């Protein structure tokens, strides 16, 4: 609410002034006011007041009344509400990405000094060096949009950037090949049987023959298996919080909550591993039947999730096997399912894909590989 009043200047002449209440500062929590003086008559003061009120409603507070924050300051405010909308593990991951890639570039800058050319330069830099650069672009845009909502800036400088697009390079083709064909999987499993522990053999048998995610695998308990019906229920995954501690949480998507069938040989191996685990716990004085223990464990962290990548890298190199990452066994399972005649819907349900596009991407890759052998199959059939 504004008040216009007459006052006497130092030279004895009369003039008009007004004081406009601007509300509570959302940053400091203190009331804000602005005062304008020196108007010759009440009409002049009213005109100036109306213009100021219109300007504030359209553009926010005048610069003189605003505390222009740094990017770091607005980020801290934004993150407090953002983390309530995502899982704890995702908040941990995003904070790490922001601290590593965004704040070193933007953190100390005043928000009104961040320009579109500056943002474009950072986006171009991320594109050249970071695989998931789209995530950094999206997060930076969200933070600056929050600054706009908070009336710190009039426009979001990220709105007009051009996002670079990757070409289908050799690197991306190698990345697509992160899976085994039937013969490669057979050779890998045989090497595990000959040269590794029973636990590792069972772990990769489960990954390759069920297609579950490594976080889902690490969270498995014996109660998740129904040995009489030959099924496995997926209801949780393991994640890491900001303090670096592992904890259980619901799976990636609602479609990830699923029950799938498991083949007899995998179930037999699991039973064999369960008996070995019981003996191990018995030696330690623990009755595994009285506790709902994890199916797989690691001596140091209690979870195998963090050790699988390192094991695979060493094992495949030592026994001259094609390199593969833990997630590659999920792709392997999907690819071999398609080759065995499974439908797209069956694969989607089994892998817990929320979006059929994810399943289709794998299907397209598999059929592309098959197309390359079409001419050879035809010539072999004709045989002349």
From TrEMBL:
InterPro entries attached to this UniProt entry: AP2-like_int_N (IPR028259), DNA_brk_join_enz (IPR011010), Integrase-like_cat_sf (IPR013762), Integrase_catalytic (IPR002104), Integrase_recombinase_N (IPR010998), Integrase_SAM-like_N (IPR004107), Phage_Integrase (IPR050808)
GO MF terms, alphabetically ordered: DNA binding
Assigned keywords, A-Z: DNA integration, DNA recombination, DNA-binding
Pfam family, one: Arm-DNA-bind_4
One of the GO biological process terms: DNA recombination
Record family assignment: Belongs to the 'phage' integrase family.
The name this protein goes by in its record: Site-specific integrase
Organism: Ligilactobacillus murinus
């Amino acid at each position: 609410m504004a008040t216009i009043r007459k006052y006497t200047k130092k030279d004895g002449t009369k003039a008009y002034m007004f004081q406009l209440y601007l509300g509570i500062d959302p940053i400091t929590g203190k009331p804000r006011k602005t005062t304008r003086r020196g108007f010759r008559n009440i009409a002049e003061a009213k005109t100036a007041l109306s213009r100021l009120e219109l300007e504030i409603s359209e553009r926010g507070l005048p610069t003189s009344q605003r505390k222009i924050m740094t990017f770091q300051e607005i980020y801290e405010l934004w993150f407090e509400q953002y983390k309530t909308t995502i899982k704890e593990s995702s908040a941990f991951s995003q904070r790490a990405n922001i601290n590593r890639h965004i704040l070193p570039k933007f953190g100390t800058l005043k928000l009104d000094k961040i320009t579109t050319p500056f943002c474009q330069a950072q986006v171009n830099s991320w594109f050249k060096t970071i695989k998931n650069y789209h995530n950094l672009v999206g997060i930076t845009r969200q933070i600056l949009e929050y600054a706009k909502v908070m009336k710190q800036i009039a426009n979001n400088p990220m709105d007009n950037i051009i996002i670079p697009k990757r070409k289908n390079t050799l690197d991306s083709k190698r990345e697509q090949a992160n899976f085994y064909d039937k013969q490669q999987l057979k050779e890998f499993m045989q090497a595990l049987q000959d040269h590794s522990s029973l636990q590792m053999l069972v772990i990769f048998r489960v990954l390759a023959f069920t297609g579950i995610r490594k976080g889902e695998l690490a969270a498995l308990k014996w109660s998740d298996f129904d040995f009489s019906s030959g099924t496995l229920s997926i209801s949780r995954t393991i994640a890491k919080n900001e303090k670096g501690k592992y904890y259980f949480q619901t799976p990636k998507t609602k479609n990830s909550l699923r029950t799938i069938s498991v083949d007899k040989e995998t179930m037999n191996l699991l039973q064999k591993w369960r008996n070995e685990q019981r003996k191990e716990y018995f030696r330690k004085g623990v009755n595994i039947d009285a506790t709902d223990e994890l199916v797989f464990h690691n001596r140091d962290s209690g979870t195998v999730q963090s050790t699988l990548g390192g094991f695979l890298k060493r094992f495949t190199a030592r026994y001259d096997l094609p390199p593969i990452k833990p997630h590659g066994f999920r792709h392997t399972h999907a690819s071999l399912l398609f080759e065995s005649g499974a439908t797209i819907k069956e694969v989607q349900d089994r892998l817990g894909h929320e979006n059929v596009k994810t399943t289709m991407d794998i299907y397209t890759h598999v059929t592309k590989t098959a197309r390359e052998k079409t001419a050879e199959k035809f010539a072999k059939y004709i045989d002349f």
